[in-house]
Design a protein that fits this description.
The protein has 338 residues and is of the alpha+beta class. 46% of the residues lie in helices and 17% in strands.
């Protein structure tokens, strides 16, 4: 039975629900009744407890969810939100870097953000971030749910039970984690060209973690690499991640968490090689060799930007191999259609 007018998945264990009409029609206008019903349904199916936040906007609902943990319900309106003593990290999207930048200027809470004008905030953390923080600090959030939002990243991270005794064990773990990530990508008919490896390294001097086989106190590291073309091939993803791990130069005995993310995704169902210039040029050349002068040959080149169509500064910034591909492709077009 549907319980929401619209749903937006945020992560594997979080979702945003617009329940305005359902609450008004079926729950006497009281969203807490529906929230209790949802918690009961989830517990019956999974034996897991759920925390639910209620609010008139995404911001207030997410802050309320934090206050509802563990396993409770919290409702916030703007008035009650403004009365909360919130840290900067309590605002969705505000990470360590933003928190540290603001703290360096004496801004250490959401109330402090409210007390500063927008221009001052923009001078510290940039125009877009400052505007978001300025509005969020006052409980203002005009975002709407995006139920059809296209997924921008596939990934997996494991931070429990990670203990390696050799480099080979770490490499094998990365290979197996890559298969998990690529399996999800293949099922969704997606591929990506940016890989990020995330590692938590045991911090010296902090002893054993409080949780058995947990990662404990760690330092976090991440490193990314662009792939030559779109892929969902687990071997290629694993190879890229293993190279990144070598670049980090971290003793495998100190690794306590491993995560892999793949971004810069193609559209669902499109070719895994979409966007690869070398492949486009190769395909274009093949079509022309099969039927020079045919309409199909012309179409093959119409969608391909030539070197002369690119700004000179952009062309100069491209990797040498891609720049030469474009130049050769342009010369081939000239030879065919002159």
């Amino acid at each position: 039975t549907p319980i929401a007018d619209e749903t937006q998945a945020v992560s594997i264990d979080e979702a945003l629900l617009d329940v305005t009409e359902y609450v008004s029609r079926d729950y006497s206008g009281d969203p807490r009744i529906l929230a209790e019903h949802i918690r009961s349904l989830v517990f019956q199916e999974t034996r897991c407890t759920v925390s639910i936040g209620i609010g008139p906007s995404i911001l207030l609902a997410r802050v309320a969810t934090t206050k509802a943990k563990p396993g409770g319900i919290c409702s916030l309106d703007i008035r009650s939100f403004l009365q909360l003593d919130l840290d900067i990290r309590d605002l969705p999207g505000a990470g360590y870097a933003v928190e540290e930048s603001l703290a360096a200027h004496g801004i250490k809470s959401v109330a402090d953000i409210r007390a500063h004008d927008l221009q001052r905030l923009q001078a510290i953390c940039g125009e877009k971030t400052a505007l978001t923080l300025h509005n969020f600090s006052k409980g203002i959030d005009a975002r709407r749910l995006e139920s059809d939002k296209l997924r921008q990243m596939f990934g997996a991270e494991i931070g429990w039970g990670v203990r390696f005794s050799s480099q080979e064990e770490a490499d094998d773990f990365i290979a197996r984690l890559s298969k998990e990530v690529c399996g999800a990508m293949a099922a969704a008919e997606r591929a990506g060209s940016l890989v990020t490896l995330k590692i938590k390294k045991r911090r010296e001097g902090y002893g054993k973690p409080s949780k058995f086989l947990g990662h404990g106190v760690c330092d976090s590291f991440s490193k990314s690499a662009d792939l030559p073309q779109m892929t969902s091939n687990p071997e290629k993803i694993a190879d890229a991640c293993i190279r990144l791990l070598r670049q980090m130069d971290i003793d495998p005995l100190d690794i306590r968490s491993v995560g892999i993310q793949v971004q810069k995704l193609n559209s669902p169902g499109s070719s895994s090689a979409a966007g690869d210039i070398g492949t486009i040029l190769a395909n274009g050349s093949k079509v022309v060799s099969e039927g020079r002068g045919k309409e199909k040959a012309k179409v093959a080149f119409h969608d391909l930007p030539t070197a002369s169509q690119l700004d000179a500064s952009v062309l100069d910034e491209l990797p040498e191999s891609i720049r030469q591909e474009l130049l050769r492709g342009e010369q081939l077009c000239k030879n065919i259609f002159r």
